[in-house]
Design a protein that fits this description.
7-stranded mixed sheet, Aspartate Aminotransferase, domain 1, single chain, alpha/beta, Aspartate Aminotransferase, domain 2, 465 residues, 6-stranded mixed sheet
Length: 465
């Protein structure tokens, strides 16, 4: 069977092992149907049926793997979809760094071993503040490293209003406990004062930790001390002040047209924080990483800890992060960092993009009974960032087809498309769409619509607004 022309063609596309596995599954299915009497015991007919089923089985058996998807859900930093997409300069930097060898831990000027943060630190400090910087694989790792290096076996003081749960069910108290530190809670859920920290600091205090509430909002009868107030307490008692800022904005978020101003890392450093930890793949718009900036002596203690080797990133992350930081430092983030560009889009730009997507979909032919229209909608920043921020956006609304079956067909497309069900219709929000993805989006939607109608998921008579 593998020697047939049909199988050889599939082998050229997918390789012999994948086709062989798929063929075995087809033959097992045919044997079962033959034994049940569902198929005639005709050798030629069975061979023909096997070859007819083989292409589909090969397609179905394709390993899921890590696949590019089109994000039309309207969530810019979609955690389940890898958060920030990388810009062309970052992609080019990754390719260049992986083309051959790269000076990851080699000082070219001195001709001897260096450390892998040497190229990143000046850019990180220019954008995020501090005298030195290091990079680990995410912000939770940065908190873990700092707590382990500075407070293992000692106490870490945290406000009760900041004991947050991050993605995947992981909680700040668990991260602290995992490094052997003891959590000391101060204040209440809604109100914590500087005096609460002063009373809690003692001979066993290893650090004061401030956790930015970036993934939820606490409103109403609230109070919390400033970083400057806590820095004064930390200095007076000789303990480090750590700030887990999480979201990692590279500049004033109001300049992007957002209503919320996120605290900036460099402001925390200027206010006296010893170490500030941010995510590379949130508002910074780069790869998944945790960046630690602050005083050189504190950063050095983290860099020299054995855990650093387990948490350090590889050259792919470093190359992408360097390019992303450079875009921020050079004032090109709104052009070269896709997440920043998406957040900066005006309603007029979004409507124009939605019109372009709708027209491209319509070129493929709208099936009978399907209605496409432009719909104003609301997008989100995502990634546990700016939880109260609502982003006005535009979407292509698809009526006349049941949204759930259509969404399933789009998830099975190549590349898969992720939309959002709303008001009984599927919406394809363009806030999170890259302009270069319009053609692929249109192809996937057109094919999915025809399949949906053919399988009875929609009524008749097509219209377009």
């Amino acid at each position: 069977m593998l020697a047939t022309d049909a199988a050889r063609e599939l082998i050229e596309q997918r390789g012999r092992p994948a086709v062989a596995v798929a063929l075995r599954e087809v033959l097992e299915s045919l044997r079962a149907e033959l034994l049940s009497g569902a198929l005639p015991p005709d050798r030629d007919a069975l061979r023909a049926e096997a070859l007819a089923r083989l292409p589909r089985k090969v397609s179905e058996s394709r390993p899921a793997g890590l696949r590019r998807v089109i994000n039309a859900a309207g969530v810019v930093l979609h955690t389940n979809l890898g958060r920030a997409p990388l810009g062309e300069p970052a992609l080019a930097a990754v390719v260049e760094a992986c083309r051959g060898y790269a000076a990851v831990e080699y000082d070219l000027a001195r001709g001897e071993r260096g450390h892998r943060d040497a190229l990143i630190a000046p850019l990180a400090n220019a954008v995020l503040g501090g005298d030195d910087a290091l990079v680990v694989n995410n912000c939770a790792a940065a908190v873990l490293l700092a707590a382990t290096a500075l407070a293992a076996g000692r106490e870490v003081i945290v406000s009760r209003g900041e004991l947050v749960e991050i993605g995947g069910g992981f909680r700040v108290p668990d991260v602290i406990a995992s490094c052997g530190a003891r959590l000391v809670e101060v204040g209440t859920t809604n109100k914590t004062r500087a005096a609460d920290y002063e009373r809690a600091v003692g001979p066993d205090t290893g650090a004061i930790l401030v956790v930015h509430r970036s993934n939820f909002a606490l409103l109403g009868f609230t109070e919390q001390p400033t970083v400057e107030e806590l820095a004064a307490i930390a200095r007076a008692r000789g303990v480090p002040l750590l700030v887990d800022l999480g979201s990692g904005a590279g500049g004033d978020t109001r300049a992007l047209g957002l209503s919320t101003r996120e605290p900036l890392s460099r402001e925390c450093v200027a206010s006296g924080a010893d170490l500030v930890m941010v995510s590379g793949d949130k508002l910074l718009g780069g790869p998944q990483a945790g960046v630690v900036v602050g005083g050189a002596s504190w950063v050095a203690r983290l860099r020299g800890h054995p855990l650093m080797r387990a948490l350090r990133p590889g050259r792919l992350v470093l190359a992408a992060l360097e390019a992303t930081l450079r875009a921020h430092a050079d004032g090109r983030a709104a052009r070269d960092v896709p997440a920043v560009a998406m957040l900066s889009r005006t309603p007029a730009e979004l409507r124009a993009l939605a019109e372009s997507a709708l027209a491209k979909i319509a070129e493929g032919g709208i099936p009978d009974g399907v209605r496409l229209s432009l719909a104003p909608t609301e997008a989100r920043v995502g990634g546990g960032t700016l939880p109260l921020e609502v982003l006005p956006s535009w979407a292509v609304r698809v009526d006349g087809v049941a949204p759930d079956p259509l969404a399933a067909l789009l998830r099975a497309a190549t590349p898969p498309v992720i939309g959002r069900g709303l008001d009984g219709a599927l919406h394809l929000d363009v806030r999170s769409l890259l302009p270069s993805e319009v053609d692929d989006l249109a192809t996937a939607v057109t094919m999915a619509l025809h399949k949906a109608v053919a399988t009875g998921a929609g009524p008749k008579h097509a219209t377009r607004d």
